[in-house]
Design a protein that fits this description.
homodimer, 315 residues, alpha/beta, TIM Barrel, 2 domains, three-stranded antiparallel sheet, 15 helices, flavoprotein (chains A, B), NMO (chains A, B), oxidoreductase (chains A, B), nitronate monooxygenase activity (chains A, B), Enoyl-[acyl-carrier-protein] reductase FabK (chains A, B)
Chain lengths: 315, 315
């Protein structure tokens, strides 16, 4: 199979493999994103809580590292959304993915600037709305995903979203290998998004402690913190995560306070005692730190092998 | 494709399609189970809180309704497990599925009696243990499932379990159609288990109110109750479910008390005010009450179509 010939995501984004990097604050650096783009996927800079000048710097950096298409992820809860949107338009960033929320007020300007707009959705109804306002594709992200999550699992959500819209669907949440990619394609998805798998790569500047935690975690070793605070996020179950969950049953304000800055502490400092190590349930399927190029090639190869075996079997 | 020829679940259980009925207390009646078996799947009587004489009656009844293989689901937390295991051995029930828990103390006797033993597992480690003690297959049930659930989603769990064991894997949780079945087979599963889809059938004696709730619910309309009590269960989000979740943050004992008997009130009485309507997230993918035979045929047909389209696409 040649993805370029019959895959709408590859055609839409002008990339070789329909593998997109998740929007990750702190972990989604220009270096990691460039590695993904250079390996044939779509690298995505996680703008997180960045101000305009920081994102400008990140965009300048990635352009020194790759001449392939790349994306910027913008979180709609950021106080700087307006200026970040202005910037990606000025900079003619090829693709923008939006973290859960409704990007409709920015849609017309982004589309007029020729930017591909791909919102993350957590329900089939949201997907339909995004299609209606002109999204080029949607990312259907299930609750097994790392970081901020919805309620519906990838299997159910991707199935429902693929039935609801005609634009291409990118499956996200719990995907770290070629088998999961094949399963998502069987449901009708045309691309996958991965976050945790790319953190466990050579090129990620994510702290070694974080990478080690991913390697040693099983599929049962993540928990959700922040749910009672209205911003549920999946993290690796460390002593800190257990403490946060306990605080959430006793003192919400204190829970909120210890969570502030905790993602940075995990990604940048590797601070086991105070960091939120956001990661998906697929940590249990990741056993090796590898170069990004190898990760993508392995997934594409396993996707081919899996589909061949499967298609042979069901003939 | 002929399942009989190359599918280990069909060969193991001597059935036509690798589609198993979930172990459902109250809803898993002999009538519904017989309909599933007569349609080529494996019908399963949910023994729930039954005593020996009630299960004996149910087994006698199903034998008047079908001459096809059928199963009995035994919940390992039942106070009557010992006597139910004695009974299924005496009755030479073809297949026993076990609700989450460890059935190892019964394994030797069941296997010696020629019974196929298929435990439900919520982790890859549990699956390996079950394989080691002689289980014929395992059911990997994700947390999008209805009723009592674990923490890991179907996509991640089935992937991990298929990599962990050599015995056949049956995927469960969030599956109600042929696309999801194809996705699970792409992951390496060789069968599917469905509960909610079979409740929404003509033959289910489940109260009309329950069936109507399934039809009108979206993928986001289930919640988990009982988690703080140590027995999390997925139910449709009714006013009662919201009340239980609120009680759980305030008065655990009262929450426990209102939950007693609440499944029976939902299934048998259709009591919207006091019933726990256990159902999976796939309620959002179910739009029609149909005869069981049609449900199974539609799923098999969609499985074929989906795999053909998919296999054509990835050629």
């Amino acid at each position: 199979m040649n993805f370029r010939q019959n895959n709408r995501i590859c055609q839409l984004l002008n990339i070789e493999y329909p593998i997109i990097m998740g929007g990750m604050s702190w972990a989604g650096t220009p270096k990691l994103a460039a590695a993904v783009s250079n390996a044939g996927g779509l690298g995505v800079i996680g703008s997180g809580a960045m101000k305009r000048e920081h994102l400008k710097e990140a965009i300048d950096t990635i352009r020194t590292l790759t001449d392939k298409p790349f994306g910027v992820n913008i979180i709609l809860v950021s106080p700087y959304v307006d200026e970040l949107v202005d910037l990606v338009i000025e900079e003619k960033v090829p693709v923008v993915t939006f973290g859960a929320g409704n990007p409709s007020k920015y849609m017309t300007r982004l589309k007029e600037a020729g930017i591909r707009v791909i919102p993350v959705v957590a329900s089939d109804n949201m997907a339909k709305m995004m299609e209606r306002i002109g999204a080029d594709a949607v990312i259907a992200e299930g609750m097994e995903s790392g970081g901020h999550i919805g309620e519906v699992t990838t299997l159910v959500l991707v199935n429902a979203v693929c039935r609801a819209v005609k634009i291409p669907v990118i499956a996200a949440g719990g995907i770290a290998d070629g088998r999961a990619m094949a399963a998502m394609f069987a449901l009708g998805a045309e691309g996958i998004q991965m976050g945790t798998r790319f953190i466990a790569s050579t090129e990620a500047d994510t702290h070694e402690n974080f990478k080690k935690l991913i390697l040693k975690s099983s599929i049962r070793d993540t928990v959700v913190t922040g749910a009672p605070l209205g911003h549920p996020a999946r993290v690796i179950e460390t002593r800190f995560a257990r403490k946060v969950r306990e605080l959430e049953t006793k003192n919400l304000q204190e829970a909120e306070e210890v969570l502030v800055g905790s993602l940075r502490k995990a990604v940048v400092d590797g601070n086991i005692e105070e960091g939120s190590f956001m990661a998906g349930q697929c940590v249990g399927l990741i056993n090796e730190i590898k170069p990004v190029k190898e990760i993508i090639q392995d997934i594409v190869n396993e996707f081919y092998e899996t589909t061949q075996t499967f298609c042979e079997f069901v003939k």
